[in-house]
Amino acid sequence: MHNGYSLRVAAVMLAGLVGATGVGLGDAAAQKIICWKDKSGKVIGCGDRVPHEYRDAATQELDRRGVTRKVTESAEDAAKRRAQEEELARQKAEEEKRLADLRRQDAALLATYSSAEEIDQKRDRELQQLDAQMDQLQVALKNVTERANDLSARSAAMQKQKKPVPPALEEDIVKTNQEKERLERTIASREKEKQQIRNRYFADRKRYLEIKGSAAAPAVPTPPPTAAKK
Description:
230 residues; disordered C terminus; 67% helix; 4 strands; four-stranded antiparallel β-sheet; alpha+beta
């Protein structure tokens, strides 16, 4: 009601201006009233120009008959709209990139394998290579652990006999323990790598069957983790 009333008042103001100044009908058509609004969209004032303090407000331009000829949004609403448009454009670009990447991955998958069994075979070969590396690492860890224990025992025996521990022995103990820790970290890293290989080939196999249109892709049995050798 308030908006309608304000707009009618604006039209009356314009009509009065025409009558008072004797402006012709042709010129009257060019006359206009601009109403400005608050943040809720309610008209709070009308005139021949927008006051400086309301320069960023939404406006509504009327002709002499009170017919709306032009509407502008507030600076705040315009900023929000632009931000929304930019966000939608960003999301669209991300989705287009994701789909393009997926198409490239699918093409590479089909070019690399001719069957799901080939995927399983390649997975098994990679796991076997890692297992061979881990066998060597486990042997090395066993040897360095035995050496670390022997050095520690020698140091403990000297201390028990109240003999000074040679600096060379202490240095050897430190280096041996550092090597032991390095091997343990490497073995743990290889275990993670094995699981990553299983996950990657599981996903590749699943996607390959989806591309080929299989109704139900059978679950790929995941090889059990290789037990750490003593």
